[in-house]
Fold these 2 entries.
Entry 1:
Amino acid sequence: MKNIFDPKVNEETIQRINNLSPDSTPAWGKMSVDQMLAHCSVAYEMAYTDKHPKPNGLMRFLLKTFVKSGVVNEKPYPRNSRTAPVFIISERKDFDVEKKRLISFVQKTFDYGPNYFDGKESLSFGPMTTQEWNNQFYKHLDHHLTQFGV
């Protein structure tokens, strides 16, 4: 798995996002490119904002027990895999706004660096290692950027 805290990987990821256009179409799935950008930002919103509520204790137990390993491991997501309801973006978005917002989150993550994430609590999964945060962020972005051919 590539390391989002590596300057070259950070630059490459931002360049891939910049290679998208409002006319980019997915190789699979139903999201438009603007929806995909907003969808990818949800993971960062959950890490940096209070926009999304913390799941209750039972739901967190279920997420940690049955979902976490698939999110933080190094195995790529399968095409057309299901997503959590909070990640569903049903309305169209402003492409330029969402692109800038996602790039800002990617850069903020790089700027904070790996030490910031060591032991940082995930809303859904509890405390995670830097490697788990890396895998979660990079794997999700790579999945969707590949979906849109960049």
Entry 2:
Amino acid sequence: MYLTKEEKAKLFAKHGKSATDTGSAEGQIAIFTQRIEHLTKHLKKNHKDYNTERSLVMLVGKRRSLLDYLTKKDILRYRAIVKELGLRK
């Protein structure tokens, strides 16, 4: 796989509450963003890979749902994660 356990733990530690808190919305959004970047690079080389394209679209939808949840729950946390990850609003 493209992410090792250490890299995932580092992502969760940076964006979540701790390295073992894998369920927080910020941690999930960060890991989805990492996967989206990886799939985007893959699709630039393999533009006819429609299964990966579908997976990418579904993943972006999941991330959008989590961002919407975070907007309703705590707007300050939403703004912080969008700024950290450099996402468009």
